[in-house]
# Entry
Amino acid sequence: MNTERLRKTLSSFNPAAIIFYGLIAWFVIAFLIYPNINIYYEIFFKGGKLSFGAAEKLLSSERAMRSLYNSFILAVSLVFTVNVVGVTLVLISEYFDIKGAKVLRLGYYTTLIYSGVVLVSGYKFVYGENGFMTKLLAGIFPSFDTTWFHGYWAVLFVMTFACTSNHVLFLSNAIRKIDFQTVEAAKNMGASTFYILRRVVLPVLKPTMFALTILIFLTGLAATSAPLILGGVEFQTITPMILTFANSTSSKDLAALLALILGLATLVLLTLMIRFERKGNFMSVSKVKSELVKQKIDSKLANIAVHVLAYFLFLIYMIPVVLIVVFSFTDAHSISTATLDIRGFSLNNYMQVFSSMSAFKPYLVSIIYAAAASAAVVVLALMASRILHKYQNKWTLALEYSLLIPWMLPSTLIAIGLIVTFNTPRWIIGNSVLVGTVWMLFIAYVIVHIPFTLRMVKASFFSLDSSLEDAAKNLGAKSFYTFRKVLLPIILPSTLAVFALNFNGILADYDLTVFLYHPLYQPLGIVIKNSTDAQALADTKALTLVYSVILMVMSTITLYFVYGRKSKS
# Structure
């Protein structure tokens, strides 16, 4: 009976489906499960015996322990500074009646079009030792220390203003959903503007604030670009230290252990977030909600102070963007001396990027990686979502949880797991070595983008009308034909949006790229970071500014097509 049922089940699968399912199973085992298990073995069971040598080396390493301490200090600091700045931005742009709020919003949203190493390099270009603002301040105050922008405070400053993207996206949406009737009722009872804000508005934002706080802490803990570029020798954090250890043959076990600690901290924090959210009661009691009306600040003095603060924050966000764009049109001498001269303006930098193969190569490498990885992860998510949509059993549940593994692990741990596992021949990949090949970075990009892509594509699948597939089946259409001709055209717009967001994210990635890139094929993130070094040539810095501007333009276009058109429809 069981044999007959098995035969019928197998006969319902066509060969292509069996191959697809086999490939997914192999990918999950080879790249999501095996490396993350192997890293434990390499740390604690190397040579076949239980050993805590790596932990002893870590505890005895003053640099490693200092990096751990610095990472937690940075993470805790960012929880306060980013939340204060992020909430302020949202209140200014969405809650209070501020003159020029639409213009201010454009400035506050700039972190959506440039982030990571591009943003950090931009801030260093403005505030670094040879930066425009530093030269300006030194001209006004002759005793001004031009080396002021480095260490803990520089990292904290940059990351505070870099990490408000989630606030302007998610907290803005949350504050727009506040019931205006509740605010109006409190006002009618004589409550002041700031009392209503403290006792009525902010409590409704608790669930979003809590989730953002966890994300901020994790971001600070795993920070790479800012500590590496601005931290200096006095403020090294976990990820730069992992990179240092990973590049040393004798210290790879320390790199793996630090990455493991980072991963465990991530898992603990995500677990706490889930538990607190389940216990907390943050629901709004309002049943019929009215649209929030922007609130006027009654106190004239407070109104002036909030306006001054709003435009001061606007300048902080806009100055790096404006100067990057302006200096991208100047010559190497103007860039190296941080001076603006109308005679130095030209399109030569842009012409060189698009006419010289050596200048265009980093951009081309990044485009190929981003396009290939984005396409691969979308195809993988489509196949997996099709399985999850069509079958619901313990195997599909296991598949879904396996594909979400990268969401629970920092990219640093994923990178170290791949390095430690595939630096020697492994039977699971045909006895090949992946370390030192172009495939390693491609696979890593696919891995880290699986969870987000799967969630988005799966949501599209489960929103489909099941009667469409039933109708096609009744007309004699095969499963793959139905998917290709009926289902795929419906979910294609959202799938292309996910592809665009992934492409955008990979294009200037540095945090993952720095561990796995091929030296002969340097992506944009590596080139941009290298241009921040003191010994970098002025011509290189000029090309880097052009890369940054092009990336910002591409990000703006992507965000418009993904979000802007939706908001208009």
About this structure: The chain is about 75% helix and 0% strand.
